[in-house]
Amino acid sequence: MKLNKESQGQSLGVALGGGAFRGAAHLGVLKALEEEGLRPGFLAGTSAGAMVAAFYAFGKNPEEIRRLAKNLNWMKFTNLALSKMGLLSNSEIGRFVEEHLGSVRLEDSPIPLAVVATDIRSGERVVFKQGPVAHAVMASTCIPGLFAPVQEGSRMLVDGMLVENIPVSVLKEMGAPVTVAVNLSNGQYRQPQTLAEVLVNAFSVAIDQTTQRQLAEADVEIHPQLDGYGLLDDSNLVKLYAEGYRAAALKIDPIREQMSRKEPSSWEFLEKRFRKWLNT
User: DSSP character for 144?
Assistant: First the structure.
């Protein structure tokens, strides 16, 4: 039994990893998949990947998200936190999400959506599948040291990259039969010019050591070539988009191969339809 083009992506889970402004490459990846009828049936995101996953899951197309991202003043001085917990407040992210998506909730997402953050008190992974999208994305993108943690009861939440930079395991927990990991790391770091860049580089060096274990869980890895693109450089969004598109286009056949291996047989499909009919 073959899947038609409109339903091909329904069994596909896509994990979008962190990477600050390199997250624009995720948009090119999603565009390439979409053009091949592989619109994801599950999305999980960490940090920049959480932001992109949220906007895409709630109906924004990749080009629209890229245009909106040009207006994001993520690290502007007016977000100064005056806190011993961080230099800045990450409230700009929450405001940005609510301005463009409204007060939406994760459980109402048209595409099943999960967002990963870290409890800096306990070191535990926190997976948001319910609750306000703005709050979850604000926590997931909260780079420790740079931004003050996001409070949630007794929890102090920071960037999910600390515990799961590319949340493939979350897709499996959600029930995605086929998983694709989008990796924005390139193992190279530009010479920092500011304190923010020092903090982000240090963070990324540590994270990259654990990312390979997460990638091993995925059926397919998409790895855009992002050498020369800084984590905090927001001047190359179009080029990053193109790099993501190019990398995903090269992985269409491997993705289809994985999906054909894991799609249900005709008898399994009929059995599920029969059981569903019995329960109606």
Answer: B
* 41-52 pLDDT, tens digit each: 999 999 999 999
**Other beta carbons within 10 Å of 33:** 26
Q: Tokens 């590319």, residue?
A: 166
- Say which residue the tokens 């995903």 belong to: 248
Based on the number of CB atoms within 10 Å of its own CB, is 277 exposed (0-12), middle (13-18) or buried (19 or more)?
A: exposed
Q: Tell me, what DSSP letter sits at residue 105?
A: B
For residues 108-118, one letter each, b for 16 or more C-beta atoms within 10 angstroms of the residue's C-beta and e for the rest, the string is: ebebbbbbbbb
Instruction: State the pLDDT confidence band at 75, using cuts at 50, 70 and 90.
Output: low
Q: CB within 8 A of 139, min separation 6: which ones? A: 115, 117, 126, 128, 150, 152, 157, 158, 160
Phi, psi of 220 (to 5 degrees): -140, 140
- Rounded Cα–Cα distance for residues 215 and 223 (Å): 10
Q: First CA to last CA across the chain, in angstroms?
A: 25
| 179 or 230, which is more confident | 179
DSSP string, 32-56: HHHHTT---SEEEEETHHHHHHHHH
pLDDT at position 272: 52
Catalytic residues: 47, 159
Q: Give the whole-angstrom CA distance, residue 157 versus residue 120.
A: 6
Query: The tokens of 238 are what?
Result: 């179009």
Does residue 191 contact residue 144 with C-beta atoms inside 8 Å? no
